[in-house]
Structure prediction request, 605 residues.
Amino acid sequence: MKNLLFMILAFVLLLGGNVVFAAPAPNTTIYLSCSDSDGGLTTGVHGRINYTYNTAGFSTTVLTPDFCRDSKTVVEHYCLVNLPAGTDITCGTGFTCRDGACVKAASEETKTPLCKDSDGGNYDYAKGTITLYSDSSEGTLSFTASDSCVEGKLHEYYCTQNNTVEDIQVSCPGGFSCSDGACVVRPASKSDSCTVNADGSVTSFRDGAKSTDSKHCLNSEALVDFGCNGTRRTTWTTSCSSGMMCQDGQCVQKPESSSPTCKYTEGGNDIHVKGTLSVSTPDWGVQTVSDYCVDSNGQRMENGAYVEKLVCISGDPKYAYKHERVQCPSGYSCNDGACVVSKSSTKADDDSCNGFTCYAGTRCDDNTCIHDASDSCASDGNNGIVYVTNGKTSKLPSYCSDQTAVTYACVGKNWVVQTTVCPDTYSCSGGKCVAKNPPPAPPASDVTLALVSGWNLLSSPFSAFKVTQNTCGNSIAYRYDASSNGYKTVDLSVGSHSTLDGDGFWLRVSSGCELVLTGDVNSKISDLEGKKLSAGWNMVGAASESSSWQEVKGTCASSSGPWSFDASNNKWVKASSLETGHGYFVKVERECHLGSGSMPPLPPS
Prediction:
């Protein structure tokens, strides 16, 4: 075996490569396996090796990607039998190193790479296949791979914003296991449970493991939502409509501006202070991004030797900022996106930290440079803030980015940025959404729904309505979908429009409040004629005038219900009539339709 390894190493050295083993192999380490995603010394593909070694009886699996040492040199990793190895290779004339591969230099590029992912991106709950083309005409296939399960973990491939391929290994959440390249639901046990929280998030227990999930964006065009089906957590994706994009877990209007914008809101381009940027791009809308810590390969870390600085750029039609990886100076390490003095186990005096002078505006405490206690943050009374950090006073006034209002708020001594996309009938002025002069509206009427603390089962007397007042502190309601046996969300924030067509909905509040719905008088639900019920449980609302179940049941024979929910006493109540503004659950044995109940016969003539 030693002779075989010596012959392989000698052969590689004869090739003129500068061989550097990706990890040292002490005498107690045995390398068990090694695989290379790009098949060897393939400089034109960003590959990675996956190798497993055993030390003192414990096995460890490591993924090591190819990376760029500089603009002309790629560090190409490959396998020598079971041994991981790497070598520096200079890219050829007319090529440059980017994202761990040699690609055509910008001046010679005539076509744009294209990456496609069949499951929509970094999504754990469906098996996807990555296809990478070297040009946008899709004529040259350079790489393809499918999500898979490796030793119980999901090996997920996805496309980056730069149309390159990345992959990660993730553990499926509680209640899920990896099967055929996706996280799938494991059978429920007696201890399993699922709860929809007041903020719309879902908390579930599977096999004793707790998981909390919130609605979020799958990509720029679709969002992922969660609900409960009995004791099981359910999830589904919703595509945003034309002209809309997904941002912060909601479908919002795409910005009208075709030119990306970027501004520093904190820190600037200083490696000793965590920088924060407020950016707006046509593809991803308004975002807030911050510096973070990485290792030499660019892998994100809580603490590292490098800081990934985000720097504003201009003139690019698609991107608003770029990444610059900077190594922290000697005696410093990266923590929370900034180079700070490395902490030592030996306590130093107040003037220095382990022999290093603290950065301006900070002081030493337990060998760590911290901000002075005089730091503060306060509102300027106009959606902006005034904050003091490192002894320097700064102001962040509110402003408008096209149709988006950007405001700031204090959280203790720190601050956060908040963005609001103004509705079509509003314009942005001075960091606020200001109502335009709308055209005359059709005749409308209001209905006020009074809620009590807890879950409220409600309905709207309008088939389509607008929320004109919401004092409840919660704008996410839930509508039961009998066809999928799960819940879908309804936006009840002020200014939102909804169409329920006789369905009921749940809304949970922490205290008594009011919800005012406004609808066109022509959209009032005069009766529930023709509304279809599916076999099983159905959530129904009431018409604009109260009526008994016998009057509206049509061809439906209920096996249970209708049931209303008494929020004050937290219990179900059997209902004989459907009252305006209330919602109900009714169970039927087969598909049927609501309508006018059959009338009794006339007396004999």
Remarks:
- The chain has two helices and 61 strands.
- Residues 1-27, 344-351 have pLDDT under 50 and may be disordered.
